[in-house]
Amino acid sequence: MRSLPVRRWCVPLAALLTVLCVAGPVSGRPNAEARAGTQLAADLDRLLTDPRLAGAQASVQVTDAATGEVVYQHASDALLLPASTLKTVTAAAALELLGPDHRFATEVLADGRRGGGVLDGDLVLRGGGDPSLLPSDLDELAGQVAAAGVSEVDGAVRADATRWDDVRLGPNWAWDDQPYYYSPQISALTLTTDTDYDPGTVRLTVTPAAEPGRPAAVRLTPADAPVRLTGRIDTGPLGGAPALDVTRRLGGNEIVLAGSLPAGAAPADEWVTVDDPAAVAAAVFAAALQRHGVTVAGGVAAGPATADAVTLARHESAPVGELMVPFLKLSNNGIAEHLVKEIGLVRAGSGSWSAGLAEVVAFLSRNGLDVTAARQSDGSGLSRHNLMTARRYAALLGFARGRPWFRTWYDALPVAGDPRRMVGGTLTRRMVGTAAEGRVHAKTGSMTGVDALTGYVEGDGRTLAFTVLFNNFAGESPRPVIDALVVRLAGGPAGAPPSPPSPPSLSPAARTGGKAALDWT
Prior knowledge:
Blueprint (H helix, E strand, L loop, with lengths): L12 H11 L8 H16 L9 E8 L5 E5 L12 H11 L7 E11 L2 E9 L8 H13 L4 E2 L3 E4 L40 E7 L9 E5 L6 E4 L2 E3 L6 E6 L5 E9 L5 E6 L3 H15 L3 E2 L3 E3 L7 E7 L3 H10 L3 H16 L4 H14 L23 H11 L5 H7 L8 H4 L15 E8 L2 E9 L4 E9 L7 H11 L18 H5 L9
Parallel strand pairs: 4-5, 4-6, 5-14, 6-15, 9-12, 10-12
Antiparallel strand pairs: 1-2, 1-19, 3-4, 3-16, 7-8, 7-13, 11-12, 17-18, 18-19
């Protein structure tokens, strides 16, 4: 060890006395701020010894959001699965690279010669990547076609999804997730059923019969979707537990019904993905045309419009800035992947995952946000090939505060304990009645063996940016530990987090696909 030169310590006695008089007595105890920081670190360290984390991996970083000063860190460079916290990266990239005002347009084109009200050719329904296209929007487009004077189509309704590539499932997505709403096929022409905007899905509304033992009624939305329902759902005893099992056979659009819903229960909704979303959208559009008095002789086909096709109708989505709310509040996987492919198309001329993700990586690199290694394989966090670090999230959280789109991004993050669905989102039922209620804007992320949270918390006199990543736990969920950590950052007590209540018995579909289960948030 190098010794310090003696001359550095040769301070004149008068100067030393002057320093002591001005600074006050020398003390080995830290000041109040340092003591508070030491206590915070000790409290967070203790929470991370919770038995629910035994054998698991934990990574935490907390910074002062205004200055970037590290307040606390624990294994902050560990590469861990981020689950849906990855959506913060996708959202920031979309707001930067597409812009908050970017819209997705769906068009109807006449591809052929027109004579009076007759089109000698096809009507082309051209998808523009809209993840929020509703059956009512297709009905509006059909009305525009009728208003344009077309009453008869000799050809077909042609589905054009060629804005993007034809790879419909994300890299390394689990094959057995395919029937469930959180793992839709991604297409530039797709359809959703409600303002949650889960693209590539249909909705089944199950209503129990008046008496047990009789089959429940099942209503399909959209009613004209070309899917086949098989099996049945029974009406169970009054006061019983629901046990719905609704899934789709892979490789087609047969939806299999099983289980029961108790007599007297409220109607229950189940969302199921479809195979070939573009064909489904075209079939629903063809039915809307018929309602508006436009007959189609040739059914439904697929393919792009020719260069001389004429636009008859057009529908534009809400701007990307507004779509951030259902995207982040509800952790919408489909919107995430639409944003990635659209980034690829707009910025690199290729509507593919590879092109879009390359643009996201370049955006991060240009802005110095690649502070550690990482891997992003999709936009939603559904892939188990994704890897992120808490320190990398800290860089993003700090960077975002200086961007013109920050308020849009921040307001779209779920708010802890807020009961309004499109405000609290996936944090609606978390940290209720604590110091963190209403003071946390953060993105959740969970899948089997993964729980995470990243965002901002209003602490004592300052805003903190935080990330908590837990991986590879196999027993009881450590989610209460995450909440306890954040409550402590908000100035609350450092009490031991409680165990969550025992979950109700769920069918396989409810465990993996039902929205109430929030398995992929």
